Amino acid sequence: MELDLVDKQLVKLLQEDCKKTTKHYADMLQLSKTAVYERIRRLERTGVITQYVALVDKKKLQKDFTVLCHIRLVQHTKDNVLRFEREVLKLEEVSECFHVGGDYDYILKINVADMKSYREFMLTKLTTINNIGNTQSSFVISEVKNTPSVHIG
Amino acid sequence: MELDLVDKQLVKLLQEDCKKTTKHYADMLQLSKTAVYERIRRLERTGVITQYVALVDKKKLQKDFTVLCHIRLVQHTKDNVLRFEREVLKLEEVSECFHVGGDYDYILKINVADMKSYREFMLTKLTTINNIGNTQSSFVISEVKNTPSVHIG
DNA sequence: ATAAAAATAGAATTAATATCTAAAATATAA
DNA sequence: TTATATTTTAGATATTAATTCTATTTTTAT
After folding, report:
1. Which of A64, B1, B82, B87 could pair with B46 as two cysteines, CB 3.0-4.6 Å apart?
2. What is the chain B residue with the closest CA to A106?
3. Torsions phi, psi for A66 (to 5 deg)
4. B53 and A53 in contact by Cβ < 8 A?
């Protein structure tokens, strides 16, 4: 599917705020409500837009302590890799998980309340997963964001 | 503000899909439309919910190539740090930026089309920012996600 | 136990989405 | 180029959902 300039502008608007009225986007883009409505439907139908979600204030939910945890596996057989990924996804503290090349095998973004919770998470959850070699925790001092944020699904 | 169990369930539902009708959430939670409506308003008003956004398919937007780029600064004075952060935020390829402790100073999540674009990004954009020491790029082989995703704002 | 405050349900209103029809713009084929 | 088909758009209408309102219930504090 080919996105024209208007589509791209519309996607960007929806990435910043998806709850405005169709008329609002229509005014921004100098189009009629129907035109915008149909474009949005098409973006959904063709899978460009995958989800509409609420974003929350980490601090308010006591998940303000972020760590980027680098993980090396011991063995890299397919079975081991798949089992690791399956186990990791069960942990609600893991908000992102990347299988990467280079120094480490995985980089996880962990969100918890504080250092104490992180220690607890490491000892009772993460390190109980088999096949983890060593880990290196990069503690997040601050998250640098632009406003309004454009989130990549 | 204190969140009760129903609030937490509601937040989770909204983090998975914020475009269902109030009635839908009401049915899920065994409450009336008004009850859910007022709870959502309160979550917004008190800043628990910060944003409603559309998530997009990276592949469809040709931003399917993800790199976690680790960066060391040369100097760590306040001015240098602030300037670096300001410059980094101007780059649309940077979808997340964390100031971290440990081995490196910053970890950036970069989204571009392919390796060629990444090279171009590094040469013509990132490394033109002053005060960058060295970088280490962790190329993402795959992103491990649970469905439906609960995204942390 | 009682009063005050907060939360909830259900009805009424307002406003938005979704649908329909026709017109305009764009692309396609002769 | 001209005619035809396809897509996109605008405007009107119908449908559905959000919002507001009032009364009732539940919770909280005294």
Report:
1. B1
2. B140
3. -110, 135
4. yes
